[in-house]
């Protein structure tokens, strides 16, 4: 494969052979057009051409008096220095150059650069490396002749070549020649945040643009701030004009951070980790799901909003920034807010309850044993701790949390906060456990009905139960399975096993908040009842109307009264039917607009008999699936690798750990 230098040498040789090193005289409307015509004529790239403007063209006035440019175009012959530069480029493109890693050759020839400035003709000689060849004074002199510089100090060149200090040395005087000088133009972006400088390199003995030229051009373009002095100097020193120079950049505005509340107690228990012993059992005593505090304890701190930092364009126009939004600490009973509104402390000893973004401290009512005939039903405006179990046909209702150290049998538990049942729920198909503002945690659940505003977490399995969770349902212990019943969650159902080997019918629905589903079920039930009633009413009205017509338009008073009542009832129920139908349509429309979220995950096996519903799509499992996740993508349910539950909790993370034996 030919090298980059070889390709350029072939082009240069071809140009020489075809044209005999003769120049072309081209007439065109612009220099660019002249170069394009010459490149086409010589069959070379436009970058391989040099040019000299003999006569500048004019546009004239409405085309009258227009004169073309007269340009002498000459094919470029590569010099020794340019050959050296091509060697460097060739090494980069051939793979010996790796971005970010300097792989310098042990041996490399010395090189030099010539720059024409207002101070004179400047020469920089870079020494060779290793056994590389030194720069020859004759090479520098020949290059100067090629640049049409005939008056220069040979002794200064010899000294610079000998010392090779990589410093600029003056070797000649500058002779102004505007036709050959380099040029530049400045482009400011529309948002006035950046200024780019585009350079046209000088030809022959033309002068290179210097720092003052760039600064003057920037000032003329209206740039007054954000000038990148170091970048400009580095760019000019490099003398590589193929890329534009980012010469100035404005300061973008930085919006202030919103105020936020930093809680000093756990308020989010939606993501919990469990600790299992060697036999796979979960020790609920170490979960510490409830947070007890003492009077004077700090509960929350408000971190104030930050002021925004305005930006500034390169034209010195100020760009305003938004300051962060303020927020206040929402507090409830049992707490004290400081006068400046930045700190919240506990007023009493009790248990922290966090609901609807408001933090409270509730007094705790402790039941020393079981909730039974001895205690009766418990109704308390704080939190309740039951040291024993809740027996059949009893209920516990609390405005805070409920913690049961034993089991919950065929009972009713209702709390506005979290519900924790250490030994599980065995409900005999009649137990009802509902958290209207928090989550439910239980060792196991069997033949029960659970409803949670947030999450349901059951490490040892959910069997033949109906469970609703506004967010997630997790059953991820060693023996955990979800089998039988109807399981509904707004976001996710994640279990070790889904279903059972006997193809137990298990319905799992995600992607829609169960409250909405329940509302739809209730409305559909009402609609069906209304439809049945209206069918019967209309049939009876039709019968009485027919009797009235056959009787010459008159019925007995009793039947006439009945017909009137039925007609009024039919009109009223028809109106109600339309209202219910409209509500159902609105809910269906809302569901169709919901984003495609919701997933069902089985860490080990999803058995046949499991029916999965994600929004309005369904998938009935007929074969064993292992280590899978079911998601809705592109309007269809797709199967992918298992996704473990997100059990982290950020700054409020519960410090217990999961230890699973695989």
Describe the structure.
This protein is an alpha/beta fold and 662 residues long. The chain folds into five domains: 4-75, no CATH class; 80-172, no CATH class; 183-249, no CATH class; 259-456, no CATH class; 518-593. Helices cover 24% and strands 31% of the residues. The protein is built from nine helices and 39 strands. It has a 21-stranded mixed β-sheet that branches. The chain has a four-stranded antiparallel β-sheet with strand order 10-12-16-15, with no helix packed on it.
Strand content: 25-35%
**What's the main sheet like?**
21 strands, mixed
Coarse shape:
elongated
Number of helices: 9
User: Runs with pLDDT <50, length 5+?
Assistant: 1-5, 7-20, 91-103, 648-662
Give a concise summary:
The protein has 662 residues and is α/β, with parallel strands linked by helices. 24% of the residues lie in helices and 31% in strands.
What attributes characterize this protein structure?
single chain, 662 residues, alpha/beta, 5 domains, 21-stranded mixed β-sheet, four-stranded antiparallel β-sheet, 9 helices, 39 strands, disordered N terminus, disordered C terminus
Please render the helix and strand layout as text:
Blueprint lengths: L3 H16 L4 E5 L2 H12 L6 E7 L13 E7 L4 H17 L14 E7 L2 E7 L10 H10 L7 H10 L4 E5 L10 E6 L5 E7 L10 H10 L8 H10 L6 E5 L10 E4 L28 E2 L4 E6 L7 E2 L5 E2 L15 E3 L5 E4 L3 E6 L2 E5 L1 E4 L10 E3 L2 E4 L8 E4 L3 E3 L7 E4 L3 E3 L3 E11 L4 E3 L2 E8 L2 E3 L4 E8 L2 E4 L5 E9 L2 E7 L7 E5 L3 H37 L6 H37 L5 E8 L3 E5 L2 E4 L4 E9 L2 E6 L21
Parallel strand pairs: 19-21, 20-22, 21-23, 22-24, 23-25, 24-26, 25-27, 26-28, 27-29, 28-30, 29-31, 30-32, 31-33, 32-33, 32-34, 33-35, 34-36
Antiparallel strand pairs: 1-3, 2-3, 4-5, 5-6, 7-8, 8-9, 10-12, 11-17, 12-16, 13-14, 15-16, 17-18, 35-38, 36-37, 38-39
Helix pairs in contact: 8-9
